[in-house]
Amino acid sequence: MSEIFKYDTEVASKVEVKKQQAKYFNLVREDDPILKQVLPEFDFKNPPVNPEEFAESLAETCRLHHGIGLSANQCGFPYRVFVMGADNQYVAYFNPKITGQSEEQVHMVEGCLSFPFLGLRITRPQEIMVEYQNYLGEIKHAKFNGISARCFQHELDHMNGIVYTSHAKPMALQSGMSKRNKIMRKLKLK
Ligand SMILES: [Zn+2]
């Protein structure tokens, strides 16, 4: 199942988020309405928060949970930004956009820090071209494939208030939920 936990180091090698005095955020619950909210553009001319500090804290929170991607609204903040990466190397993507995608689609099991233990098989384009702003507000372009393309698309959906359960086919959702319930019962979380 777990291609999702292997990470393409192409992205992780571009360290843009430095460690300073990052603090951790709490994750919101999976039924929090902020997960369904379309997040407004992050305004670098009049930022609602210091973008670098915010990105660092988001990255720290993602690292703490061993995630490869985390969006601001998953922590309760209505800012159009997510981080993606692994270990101590995360990149922040402000105002991300997909500017092109491959015709070729791939199936992959996705996870989400907002839905613990729920792995869902979802089909999405294999390769994407993207544009985003880094924490300084500079416009950047990149091309992703494999797990990084997958993660970017999943996180971009969060920016638009879409969670991955809405992409899963009914059968995949049912099977994912039943596996999840089994795990939660075993761990006595339910
Ligand atoms: Zn997610």
Summarize the structure.
This protein has 190 residues and is of the alpha+beta class. It is built from four helices and seven strands; from the N terminus they run ααβββββββαα.
General description of the model:
The protein has 190 residues and is an alpha+beta fold. The chain is built from four helices and seven strands; from the N terminus they run ααβββββββαα. The strands form two sheets. A five-stranded antiparallel beta sheet has the order 1-2-3-6-7. The longest helix is centred in the C-terminal third of the chain and has 17 residues, at 170-186. The chain is globular. The two termini are 23 Å apart. The site of zinc ion has 4 residues, from helix 3.
Topology record:
Elements: H1 9-12, H2 51-64, E1 69-71, E2 81-86, E3 89-101, E4 105-110, E5 120-125, E6 127-133, E7 139-145, H3 146-159, H4 170-186
Antiparallel strand pairs: 1-2, 2-3, 3-6, 4-5, 6-7
The chain binds zinc ion (ZN).
- Stretches where pLDDT is under 50 for at least 5 consecutive residues are 1-16
Number of helices: 4
Largest sheet: 5 strands, antiparallel
The gyration radius over C-alpha positions equals: 16 Å
Order of helices and strands: HHEEEEEEEHH
Helical content class = 25-40%
Main structural class: alpha+beta
Which strand order does the major sheet show? 1-2-3-6-7
**Morphology:** globular
Mean pLDDT: 89
Distance N to C terminus: 23 Å
Q: Total strand count, please?
A: 7
The distinct ligands, each listed once, are:
zinc ion
| Portion in beta strands | 25-35%
